[in-house]
Amino acid sequence: MDEEYDVIVLGTGLKECILSGLLSVDGLKVLHMDRNDYYGGESTSLNLIQLWKKFRGNDKPPAHLGPSRDYNVDMVPKFIMANGILVRTLIHTDVTKYLSFKAVDGSYVFNKGKIHKVPATDVEALKSPLMGLFEKRRARSFFIYVQNYDENDPSTHQGLDLTRITSRELISKYGLDDNTVDFIGHAVALHRDDRYLNEPALDTVKRMKLYSESVLRFQGGSPYIYPLYGLGELPQGFARLSAVYGGTYMLNKPECKVEFDMEGKVCGVTSEGETAKCMKVVCDPSYLPNKVRKVGKVARAIAIMSHPIPNTNESHSVQLILPQKQLGRKSDMYVFCCSYSHNVAPKGKYIAFVSAKAETDNLEMELKPGIDLLGPIDELFFDSYDRFEPVNEPSLDNCFISTILSILASFASGHSSFS
User: Please, which domain of life does this record's source organism belong to (predicted)?
Assistant: First the structure.
């Protein structure tokens, strides 16, 4: 371990493993360490026995739930946009040869007390009860504008500068009602709260275009894909990529202490009496707690069920978004469900997650609106974790701290800071 590296990466969460893989591909000498004896960090996947130990304190789950090895329960669940930056990174780096993906069956939104499918095609849009006849015509005009919009072609802008006008101003030009705005902003553009309405419209238009492109990519019923055997496979895929390009991995390394020189710049990492020297450190917040601040908490419920979520067309995998306005909250709530069709549970079993930014101290009551949509539940677990953000200046100390993966956070893939 007493060697010198360009970068030392601490933690094997998804973001850390992506960066480790990309930096190794770039030709940098990378050492990747983790205090745990498994990959994934906060975003690992657990089998049933591990899940039972974590939440019930013993290793004897009931037999009726099926074999433990058939479960792969994600601790930070999320679907992946089929045409998003992570998928492009997977293809570019050839990590796809280590993983298999499958399209997610449906994308739904909670509106006026009911579950509605988010239209994935023109035909579905015309049939959708989310909008009335005249509202559909107005929405169609807006969707056509978004579809034709090209940031580099002013002829598609219709005289609008989307870097200067807000989303609220753009939408108002088409006369869309509040319910339509709610479903477009939260279920299509995937904003987490309503702050976007007062921000430049360009971001919302780009998000809507990404949603549409992702739906078209696999011709499925949603814009999402999900890896077979769960998200825990992703960190391992990028770890293999790093190893192929010369990256060194060390798991189960206790007390990884980041060392600094007299100028406050990182100079190495010490573990078990040995110090590896480096120029830069990439890590999750737990390795540098004095350089991050708490910015909130995520509340989550995990449910094991014997049926799909009701009113989702018997979908074996589904994303359901509950916009903040529908619940009287400050941010959205998310329901995520997958099943044996993605090899994360035994045949006939479904895993559902209800997640939200915690806004009260009563997590069970706070998540109740999402849990109530699940139907009968075999087993239910509650969990929460703190969210942190870096407060350091990487240009001064050469420490690059990732944020804990939030509910629907975008996946990082760029690494220009290291070039």
Answer: Eukaryota
